[in-house]
Amino acid sequence: MHTVSKAVRHRAIRICLAIMLIHGWISGYSVARAELKLAGIFSDHMVLQRERPVPVWGWADKGRVVTVQFADQIITAKVNDDGTWQAILKPLAASDEARKLVAACDGETVVVADVVVGDVWHASGQSNMAMNVQAVAKHFSQAEADIAAAKLPTIRFRRIDEPQSVVPTKDIPVKAGWSVCSPNTVGGFSAAAFYFARKFQLELAVPIGIVDTSRGGTPIEPFIPRAAFKSHPTLLRELELGDQEDLLGIWKLPGGVRARDANWLPGRLFHSRLAPINRFAVRGAIWYQGESNCGDGEDPRDYRHKMRALITGWRTELGNDALPVYFVQLPGSGARAGWPYLREQQRLSMGLPHTGMAVTIDLFHEDIHPPNKFDVGK
User: Fold this and answer.
1) What GO terms in the biological process aspect are recorded for it (predicted)?
2) Three-state DSSP class for 14?
3) CA 235/CA 220 separation, integer angstroms
4) Is this structure's pTM higher than 0.85?
5) What are residue 211's DSSP bridge partners?
6) What CA–CA distances, in Å, run from 104 to 36, 62, 86?
């Protein structure tokens, strides 16, 4: 009889255990599945765009088939090799009926509740777009009354305030979600966007959704898609300097801007706030910005080219060459020397089709944030 030393036995046991662990890990890996996931813009209380195709997208294991159901439609989509999938709903009629959007795949189900169909508008810009209804109510009793009367369940808001990103991000968090307009929620909504939404909802009698990506204190550059910076020499040079994070160089550039931090750099907020939702179907966009491109030390001479880049860039990214874009011309400025120049640049931006400008010259206020957002929104 051959005897086996204790060392050899221990070595054999270790090898067997290693094989078992490896086999278990490989087996576990082979059956592990990526969780079925919808893009973060799809969450409870949302508004889907009426009367045009509606992309619905997300992630799952490659090769699987995802079924999307909404209203009377059932659409299937195969998951791509990179784990992404997209189903496109056929154009929907406006409806304030609370329905469910369901995505299902191999026993997994994701349900989005209280979904209505109407017009969705993208709202962006800097602090005058970000200024909320509660802030307006500190100046006007009318806004206080509007808050108390804001039982308007067919108006929905979605705030996106992700920090800047060097590269386009793939998704936004679901946690913030959509908010239904009520006296408890409306105080935090963009005031200009709220009065815009209320006017349209009353006139059209359809649900209105607002997706707000504004950020206070920022120039136009961070909201412009990278590809659109190639449309003008000043913009192209800004992009090159931005990639080097040369804040001083951008400021000294003729037609440049006094970039104060990374949030001011070309494309950075588009990457984090708009790129992740560029497939989301919308009716149009509203824009209220300009102050940070014509303040002390700013050079607004090429702002019209930047507006053109913003509008054409958004239209390209959103896949709609006729996307309506309405913007607010800065109000009377008093001693602010750069504002008249920028207002003229804004006027010249109306040369693009499907654009409109809200003239607010008579809404002068000593504060850089005029509290009258009633007339702006209308």
Assistant:
1) carbohydrate metabolic process
2) helix
3) 11
4) yes
5) 122, 158
6) 8, 14, 13
DSSP string, 162-175: PPP-SS--S---SS
Could you tell me which residue, 7 or 162, shows the higher pLDDT?
162
Torsion of CA 180, 181, 186, 188, to 10 degrees: 20
- pLDDT in the model for residue 332: 85
Q: Phi and psi for 85 in degrees, rounded to 5?
A: -145, 155
Which amino acid is residue 163, in one-letter code?
P
In this prediction, residue 25 has a pLDDT band, given cuts at 50, 70 and 90, of very low
Contact 120, 283 (CB under 8 A): yes
- The answer on pLDDT for 309 being more than 80 is yes
Helices (H), the chain: 6-31, 127-130, 133-137, 141-148, 191-204, 233-243, 247-252, 268-269, 303-318, 339-348, 374-377
Q: How far apart are CA 105 and CA 121, in angstroms?
A: 31
State the fold for domain 37-115. Immunoglobulin-like (2.60.40)
Return the domain boundaries, the chain. 1-32, 37-115, 120-377
Q: Please check whether residue 68 is in contact with residue 87, taking contact to mean a CB–CB distance below 8 angstroms.
A: yes
Phi and psi at 201, nearest 5°, equal -65, -40
**Residue 23 reports pLDDT greater than 50:** no
Fold match flag (37-115 vs 120-377): no
